[in-house]
Design goal:
With 270 residues, the protein is α/β, with parallel strands linked by helices. A hairpin with a 3-residue loop joins strand 8 and strand 9. The strands form 3 sheets. It has a 6-stranded mixed β-sheet, with helices on both faces. Strands 3-4 form a two-stranded parallel ribbon. A two-stranded antiparallel sheet has the order 8-9.
């Protein structure tokens, strides 16, 4: 009871935060300046400084759902075979145990575990390093329960929508199209036909305001099975779409394929 008394709820505010989906691509984007990183930097233009940032990253999959709840999350270098300079990057944003606790109370769909071990993986820090380079805004990560359906993840996102009114910026980080087995290193700027087809199809469904087909992406045909061979990079998009309320403006950024079968397309809602 005493802990509940001390819990400081985030107040409502007039301006609603946008919802973002970022096609994060290679970890090397963290240490490069290119068209994609410049696009990410532009996503925060005109946005009030968030009270906290909640990221749903493709790179934290768990059985059950967890949210980071430590005061100082570590920078996780969850990759190998890259230059030393990438492993030296530290994104020392603070955490927010108070926001994690409020999120735990907010979520009704599942029991939300408060995690003190994970930190910020490259799906989070490689992107935020360009959007908020000062690393002075509290950052939390929400894990992806790999045992649940796409519909379940979309519905969980809908429960999070009220955080947008409390100054929390929610970011999905993954890739609409993500097939590492079909990368074209010889012609990196030429997109594979099926990759372009699915990327365009997803964009049209987003603009139509009909998420049902995107939730049931496995029914989109052979092209979708190639573009989304596993769900973890696609599901963060459904979190962003689940946050949409009414007929909010949709903007696409970095709308380009990389290495043939990775979509860098990012989405801002609101």
């Amino acid at each position: 009871m005493e802990a509940l008394k001390k819990l400081q709820q985030l107040p409502q505010q007039e301006a609603k935060m946008p919802a973002l989906f970022v096609g994060h691509g290679s970890p090397m984007n963290a240490v490069e300046e290119n068209e994609f990183t410049r696009g990410w930097a532009s996503m925060a233009k005109g946005v009030a400084t968030p009270k906290a940032i909640l990221v749903v990253s493709a790179h934290w999959q768990t059985k059950g759902t967890a949210v980071t709840a430590m005061a100082k999350p570590r920078t996780i270098h969850d990759f190998y075979g890259f230059p030393r300079e990438l492993f030296e990057v530290q994104y020392n944003a603070p955490g927010s145990p108070e926001t994690a606790e409020e999120l735990q109370r907010l979520v009704k769909k599942t029991e939300l575990h408060l995690d003190h071990e994970w930190g910020l993986d490259h799906g989070t820090w490689s992107v935020l390093k360009h959007i908020y380079p000062k690393a002075d805004i509290p950052v939390l990560q929400l894990s992806l329960d790999y045992t649940k359906s796409a519909q379940w993840h979309y519905e969980l996102a809908q429960e999070l929508a009220q955080l947008r009114q409390k100054g929390v910026l929610i970011v999905g980080s993954g890739n609409i199209v993500h097939n590492l087995r079909t990368l074209n290193w010889h012609k990196p700027d030429e997109a594979l036909d099926w990759a372009t087809e699915v990327n365009e199809q997803v964009k049209q469904q987003i603009l139509s305001g009909s998420p049902e087909a995107l939730i049931k992406y496995e029914q989109l045909g052979r092209a979708a099975s190639l573009a989304i061979p596993t769900p973890e990079h696609y599901l963060p998009l459904l979190y962003t779409l689940g946050l949409q309320q009414g007929e909010e403006q949709v903007q696409f950024l970095n709308d380009k394929m990389q290495l043939g079968s990775i979509s860098m397309t990012s989405v801002r809602i609101g």
